[in-house]
Amino acid sequence: MTTMLTWQAEGRPGLEGVRVHFGPGPLGFRALGRIVRPDPSGDLTASYNLVVREDGTLLRLSVTAATMAAEKHLTIQRTDDGFWLLDDGSGSTRADFDGAVDLDLEFSPLFNSLPIRRLGLHREAGAVEVPMVFVSLPDLTVTTAVQEYRTVRVGAGDVPAQVGFTWEDFSADLAVDVDGFVISYPGLAALLSSERVDAATA
Q1: Which long-range contacts (CB under 8 A, 24 or more apart) does 15-24 make?
Q2: Rg (the chain; Cα; Å)
Q3: Which of 13, 54, 80, 101 is the most buried (most CB within 10 A)?
Q4: What's the CA gap between 174 and 182, in Å, rounded?
Q5: Quick one: how far is CA 149 from the chain centroid?
Q6: How far apart, in whole angstroms, are the C-alpha atoms of residue 183 and residue 180?
Q7: Which residues contact 36 (CB under 8 A, 6 or more apart)?
Q8: Burial class (CB in 10 A: 0-12, 13-18, 19+), 40
Q9: Distance CA 171, CA 150 (A)
C-alpha cells in the first residue's frame, strides 16, 4: 500500500509532502519527502529519504537541507547492535544517543509518527517517555532529546486518535490517523490532503 500525505504549516507559509510505501510488515515503511518553508529571514527547503524497519525502528535517514547560504547533507543509519552512524560528507561518527530508536526531524509531523506507530499508541492506551535523536533544520545538527507521548483517545472509525505530546515546556495534543500518522500538530502543521493506493494498483 502507498499513501501520499501533504501538510500545511500552521500560521505561516510552508508545506511538507511525502510518499509513503508500507512494508515490510505492518510497521515498516519507506518515505520520500520534502519540506519547504519560505521565511523573510531566509527560505528553507529540505528533502529526505527515510527507511523504517519492520519492527518500527529507524534503519536509515538521508536528508539534504538548502538555504541561499548553503547546502548540507546528512546520512544517519542505526545498526543492528543499537549504534547510530552519522556521515555528513566530511567524515563519519558513531554514537548510541542514550539508546534512542526513533528520530525527530525539525518541522516534520511525519517523524513524530515514528514512536506512535512503533508503540501502537493510536490503537491502545499507553504513556511513554522516549529518548529521541533530534535533527535540526537547516543546519542538520544532531542532538538527543526526551519526548513524552500519551494516548488521550484511541482512534475509532472515522474519529482520529489523539496523542498527547510533551517536549520540555511545550505540549500539544496530536491528531493521528488509522495508520498512526500525525494529521494535526497544533502550532506546527495540519494535513492538507492525502491519497491512498492499495498494493494491487500501486
Answers
A1: 15/192, 16/107, 16/108, 16/109, 16/110, 16/189, 18/110, 20/181, 21/202, 22/179, 23/54, 24/53, 24/54
A2: 16
A3: 101
A4: 6
A5: 14
A6: 9
A7: 14, 15, 16, 43, 44, 45
A8: exposed
A9: 11
Q: pTM (2 decimals)?
A: 0.94
Q: Measure the CA–CA gap between 44 and 39, rounded to whole angstroms.
A: 8
Within 62-108, residue ranges assigned H as helices are: none
- Whether residue 3 contacts residue 199, with contact meaning beta carbons closer than 8 Å, is answered with no
The letter for the amino acid at 84 is: W
Q: What is the pLDDT of residues 161-202, one digit of tens each?
A: 999 999 999 999 999 999 999 999 999 999 999 998 886 554
Q: For the purposes of burial, counting CB atoms within 10 Å of the CB of 170, is it exposed (0-12), middle (13-18) or buried (19 or more)?
A: exposed
How do the pLDDT tens digits run along the chain, 202 residues long? 999 999 999 999 999 999 999 999 999 999 999 999 998 888 999 999 999 999 999 999 999 999 999 999 999 999 999 999 999 999 899 999 999 999 999 999 999 999 999 999 999 999 999 999 999 999 999 999 999 999 999 999 889 999 999 999 999 999 999 999 999 999 999 999 999 888 655 4
Nearest to 1 by CA among 192, 182, 195, 158: 195
User: What's the distance, Cα to Cα, between the start and end of the chain in Å?
Assistant: 7
Residue of 91, 90, 57, 62 whose CA lies nearest to 74: 62
Cβ 46 vs Cβ 64: under 8 Å: yes
